[in-house]
Amino acid sequence: MTISTPRSAPTPAGSPFIHYQDNQLLMEQVSLKELAQLYGTPLYVYSRAALQAAWQRYQEASELGDVVVCFGMKANSNLAILQEFSRLGAGFDLVSGGELARALKAGADASKIVFSGVGKQAWEIEAGLQAKIKCFNVESIPELDLISAVATRMGVSAPISLRVNPDVDAKTHPYISTGLKENKFGIDILLAPEVYSYAKTLPGLDVVGVDCHIGSQITEMSPFLDAADKLIDLLDRLREQDIQLHHVDIGGGLGIRYTNEEPVHPKDLVAKILEKLRQRGYQDMQLVMEPGRSLVGNSGLLLSQVQFVKTTEARNFAIVDAAMNDLLRPTLYDAYHGVLALEHKAGEAQTYDVVGPICESGDWLAKQRDLVIEAGDFLAVESAGAYGFTMASQYNTRPRAAEVLVDGDKHYLIRERETFEHIYGLDRML
């Protein structure tokens, strides 16, 4: 299949800091082809200006009241990126002891760290208490008991918030929807008053907040507002029980633009939620947010080189050196990521499936994309700054990609490419 090639280069979907100049794709002022040739591919590349611009959107929201923004670092946990957000004033939302260690290594302010996740272990709780984090988001009664026991043994008080499940449909992919009754996350909001009362009886606990997180890649405001209404109703019931909380955590989940989405601006969402809180008499309540994807998603690209162009009766395939182990989202979520050639060429475009070398039919990055390419050309997979490298693996004994940060006309290697020795260095032969 062939189509007419547009006269002008395509417009990248997610970021003004990624653009064509003289038919060469640049990130800020740096040629991406030069980076691919210098560092090799597959290669993750991030724009520092894009990270700062995304943070500024949340900074504008935080100026509306007492708002704490905690970066959901499971989206991207590279130390340099965590360091950048820490310098900008971000807190961090994390889900493991390893992420806690990373955040502290990057200079995080522990008093702005919230620890989420359904399966916290005793050593992770102890590490959080030693660091004096802001809060544990508790997801079950057994977890309450464990945190109480650990804190009591250590002779400290653990600040806790209950993560409630508000049974709100986030209208997103079922794998990233977390606020329905059938999901594993949180405590049924109808049972929450009873669980709060129980928490108040346990030693070593300081009950400070309520938390919910309904899902990810949400591009409408209504699910957040529905959840906020349910949280405020819960606050009313707790007030009747003489349980006063310090903060409401509405989680993360704001989406980004992959194709033609029109994401909600954080400032608009925060304004609506603060208005609801003030109308119900909670004007002194702190609002906590846990954005992940919306802070990093459109900052990053995955660069790859075309190895072969294969034509069959049914499809054309662009076989590249990146694979599902580098970017899992397409095969895991059937997710769409834009694909751009690093050099915009004249000529007739053909329709390709962009696939990797792994021995799996699910090893694809994009399907049915119109491109003017040949073997040896470089491609960029868009919107790869979130859940790209953090979900990467070493499947097929493939070293994980290097990572580079672009800053104006400069670039910095922020993670070296793995070697085979990194992969099997911990193995032991009989």
Largest sheet: 10 strands, mixed
Q: Spans with pLDDT under 50 lasting ≥5 residues?
A: 1-7, 175-180
Q: N-to-C terminal Cα separation, in Å?
A: 54 Å
- What's the rounded overall pLDDT mean? 93
Overall geometry = globular
Radius of gyration: 23 Å
Question: Which percent bin holds the helix content?
Answer: 25-40%
Q: Oligomerization state of this entry?
A: single chain
Strand content: 25-35%
Secondary-structure class: alpha/beta
Counted by DSSP, the helix tally is 12
Question: How many E strands?
Answer: 22
Task: Offer a concise description of the structure.
The protein has 430 residues and is of the alpha/beta class. It contains 12 helices and 22 strands.
Note the topology.
Elements: E1 2-3, E2 18-21, E3 24-27, E4 30-31, H1 32-39, E5 43-47, H2 48-62, E6 67-72, H3 79-88, E7 91-94, H4 97-105, E8 113-115, H5 122-131, E9 135-138, H6 141-154, E10 158-165, E11 187-188, H7 192-201, E12 205-211, H8 222-240, E13 247-249, H9 266-279, E14 286-289, H10 293-296, E15 300-311, E16 316-320, H11 329-333, E17 339-341, E18 349-355, E19 364-371, E20 378-381, E21 402-407, E22 410-415, H12 420-424
Helix pairs in contact: 2-3, 2-9, 5-6, 8-9
Characterise the protein shown here.
- The N and C termini lie far apart (54 Å).
- With 430 residues, the chain is of the alpha/beta class.
- Strand 15 and strand 16 form a beta hairpin.
- Helix 5 packs across helix 6.
- The strands form three sheets. Strands 1, 5, 15, 16, 17, 18, 19, 20, 21 and 22 form a ten-stranded mixed beta sheet that branches. Strands 6-7-8-9-10-12-13-14 form an eight-stranded parallel barrel, surrounded by five helices. Strands 2-3-4 form a three-stranded antiparallel beta sheet.
- The N terminus is likely disordered.
- The protein is built from twelve helices and 22 strands.
